[in-house]
Amino acid sequence: MMNTIQENRTSNGSFEFPGRNESCWCGSEKKYKRCHMEEDQRKMHQYKNRPDLVYPKIARSEEFIKGMEATCGLACATLQMVEEKLTEGITTNQIDQWVHEFILDNRAIPAPLNYNGYPKSICTSLNEVVCHGIPDETVIKEGDILNVDVTCILDGYFGDTNKTFLIGNCSDEAVKITRVAEECLRIGIEATKPYGHIGDIGAAIQKYAHSMNCSVVEKFVGHGIGQRFHQEPQVPHFGQKGAGRLITPGMFFTIEPMINLGKKGVNILDDRWTAVTEDGKLSAQFEHTLHITETEVRILTQ
Ligand code: MF3
Ligand code: CO
Ligand code: CO
After folding, report:
1. Which of 14, 18, 75, 134 could form a disulfide with 32 if both were Cys (CB 3.0 to 4.6 A apart)?
2. pTM for the predicted model, two decimal places
3. CATH 3.90.230.10 assigned to 60-299
4. For 28-69, what is each residue's pLDDT tens digit?
5. Residue 160 Cβ contacting ligand 1 at under 6 Å
6. Could you state, in order of their start, the residue ranges of all structural domains in the chain?
7. Residue closest by Cα to atom 10 of ligand 1
8. Structure confidence by residue, pLDDT tens digits, 258-271
């Protein structure tokens, strides 16, 4: 999750408008000049020549797309490896070690390690921890819910995914918050459409979470991803349908709703990373990295 705005200008992604006689970017098959050209020019003026705010048609090379597929595939395989080995009685440090070794064995690097001073290779967020829990000597026990968030860097590309695991027999509340969070990610992905709006995603997530009497954390958001960990666009898990930036082909971003059983407020502990619920109630999260094409939304981390 990110909570800052950063610019997105990478070597393999550039913003480009079609030529006036080329076909329009919207898929109408009309010439650009007979379709969105005037509207784009008006908006370019309005948004002070920030094409990324008007129409971020991001050109992605085959190499870039392949790179993202590979790193996301590895992130997914890493989480699967964790799922297979996970059991009560082990420490979160132990999981950190498994992941560290697995990622290095696959000629990649764990992205969190040393990221803005973060000390470990993954985040392990237990029970009331919302996100960014730091692995330590805490022993996992039956009835816990544990989120494991894996991000790897393979050939310079970042792939980011997380899941919340139920450890053995869990309370009804623990099962509920975990299922609701998983469903929120599914619903958020379903609301994601090429040429839809970023706000559609959060609106759908929020509607479902609230219908289940749960709350949506607002302090952390999903994020653009590629050759950097966190970049534009920001992807809030709350909001309004039709609001926010256009979702356009070439975008890669995460959706990663953090859903609370109680209130949405979070506190950051003295370690400056661990985010916990203000009311001490349970929180759960799921995350995928997505690729937007002209016609579809591809889940790269499954
Ligand atoms: N993987 C987290 C995300 O989904 C970010 C973790 S940053 C770290 O964006 F430094 F805490 F690892
Ligand atoms: Co993320
Ligand atoms: Co993550």
Report:
1. 18
2. 0.87
3. yes
4. 778 989 998 998 888 888 877 766 666 656 778 999 999 999
5. yes
6. 13-54, 60-299
7. 112
8. 999 999 999 999 99
